[in-house]
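Tutorial handout. Part one gives the primary structure; part two gives the three-dimensional structure as tokens.
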Amino acid sequence: MLKKPPLGLYVHLPWCVKKCPYCDFNSHALKAALPEKRYLRALLADLEREYALAPFSRIRTVFFGGGTPSLFGASTIRAILDWLEAHGAVDPEAEVTLEANPGTVERGSFRAYRDAGVNRVSLGVQSFSDHALQALGRIHSASEAWAAIEEINAAAVPHFNIDLMFGLPGQSPDEAVDDVRQAISAAPTHVSHYQLTLEPNTLFHARPPSLPSEEDVWESFRRCGELLASRGFRRYEVSAYARPGGECRHNLNYWRYGDYIGVGAGAHGKRTFVAENRIVRSQRTRHPEAFMRPQDCTVETAEVAGTDRAFEFMLNSLRLVDGFGDRSFEAATGLDLGCLARPLQRARELGLMERTAAPGWRPTDHGQRFLNDLQAMFLPSSG
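Part two.
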């Protein structure tokens, strides 16, 4: 039976100083003054629209993503959180994450963000090598990354994530491991460790850089994972490692097929209406300028059919090292797990998935390595 899942809020702040050549997110290079007040008004109007559609239950996580949210001041972040509090829409113990990039935050601002209500910062370091940062088209240096880390730690932000990438142009496994070693020394509670991929509609896809061999990429992944594990970081998702209690609750909600409201230019949302047995996805107008004009801002919605619910659930939950429970599948989708009996059995026979005592299912180490192939087994046409 379909049940009401936990609820998160994603707030998209779409501008960057410069568009990175590998980035396929809905982000836009800032070519003039940041229209901060105007965009804030549009965000608050978007929240009002969503609230009028169906009042929120208590939001458990808030995530300010981008783009580069740290281009916005603490007062903007506080205004969004004040709106939620005024509507009784946010849990007092909610996780509130702000993405930030080194070089885009004034010295001392992390304390202001913390005072505004941010209790988790995700810092896009990507590498501690100036050479690698230049190859990635990043605007910051390694020294600026360390300056931002010092400010985050001085501000006593409760939870702190460092984003790193590996498989970078010209990067050796030793260099990838050194990036992780330096990240650990910064005392984060969480490390996100992503392989650089060449996504469509990016500069890197049009003009591919020379990347390491598959063998070197695998060696980097293996050795970096071993180092993180030896320092108390548990891999709980395909690219996420955390100390105990440091897991990103907002992302866990995505991966467990929870609900989330998405506001801002191009933001996506998913909401469950139990009484009507409906799951509805939404997407806002992508371009910031159109989003800020009420007459041009549109919200497209689409209901998620039963077969698509099953695939979406698997697409997300298979990223989790611990997998999922049978009951969680049924509660999140309103479907009987028997609808996936054939692909689950096939995945088990191939050594990609295994049964757990919960009862439930999880990907094996082999399944995690070939995750894309495993996920494809649950496409509606593959059942």
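Part three, for discussion. The mean pLDDT is 95. The domain at 7-252 is CATH 3.20.20.70 (TIM Barrel).
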